[in-house]
Amino acid sequence: MVPDQRIHERPAASADWLRAARTARRLSVATLAWLGVESTLGLAAGLASHSVALIGWALSALVEAAASLIVLWRFTGARTLSPGAESSARRAIALSFWLLAPYLVVHVAHDLGEGHRATPSALGIVVTACSLVGMPVLGMVKRRLGRRLVSAATSGEGTQNVICGAMAAGVLAGLWLNTLGWWWVDPAVALMLAAVAVREGRRAWRGHICSH
């Protein structure tokens, strides 16, 4: 069956839909490059400063990268027009959210038990500030694409990008407040991120497509 016949049989796969699918694929590739740099620098800064929130945020970039790979897989080749591929991708996105939460809880418990306290990190501030500016914009574009494609997987990937920006704001606040002696803000932010990851994973599993 030629592509034009498949598109005709599936009205949702119009020329506009296919253009949106190609855009989603390209954005996922660009996001992977961004996240590779962000995660590497964030982990280096977090380990150097003993910031569990910064380490957790950097690791969440790896979870986001997994989401981008899933969307890239979903819109490649014959899977582009496959409802089954969308269902599999949606569940995989949900699992990618749930990978982060237990790590953050265990890491917070370990650092508190060892008495580690976050120290100021210039590199961490720069990296999270860049994410705070760029990631929400990227995420909103993907969420709009998710609505056009009726793709919870694409919408979920965009939500992860938006959350990344929000997490960056929380990590920045924790790094600054730590200089005032409020050391507990850093682990509190990390636990908040774990709760957000669980919630968004549940929404992705149910196929929620953002409408706002």
Describe the structure.
With 212 residues, the chain is mainly alpha-helical. It has one domain. It is built from eight helices and no strands. Helix 2 runs antiparallel to helix 6 and helix 4 packs parallel to helix 7. The chain is elongated and about 55 Å long.
What are its keywords?
212 residues; mainly alpha; synapse; transmembrane helix; Cation transporter; zinc
Give unreliable regions as ranges: 1-11
The helix count comes to: 8
- Helix-residue proportion: over 70%
Principal-axes geometry comes out as: elongated
Number of domains: 1
Report the sheet-strand fraction: under 5%
How far apart, in Å, are the first and last alpha carbons?
37 Å
Return the average pLDDT rounded to an integer.
81
Question: What is the H/E order?
Answer: HHHHHHHH
GO molecular function: monoatomic cation transmembrane transporter activity
Keywords: Cytoplasmic vesicle, Endosome, Membrane, Synapse, Transmembrane, Transmembrane helix, Zinc
Transmembrane segments: 27-48, 54-72, 92-110, 122-141, 162-185
Protein name: Cation transporter
Compact description:
It comes from Nonomuraea turkmeniaca. With about 210 residues, this protein is mainly alpha-helical.
Question: SSE layout and pairings?
Answer:
Layout: H1 3-9, H2 15-49, H3 52-74, H4 83-98, H5 100-114, H6 122-149, H7 152-178, H8 185-205
Helix pairs in contact: 2-3, 2-6, 3-4, 3-5, 3-7, 3-8, 4-7, 4-8, 5-8, 6-7, 7-8
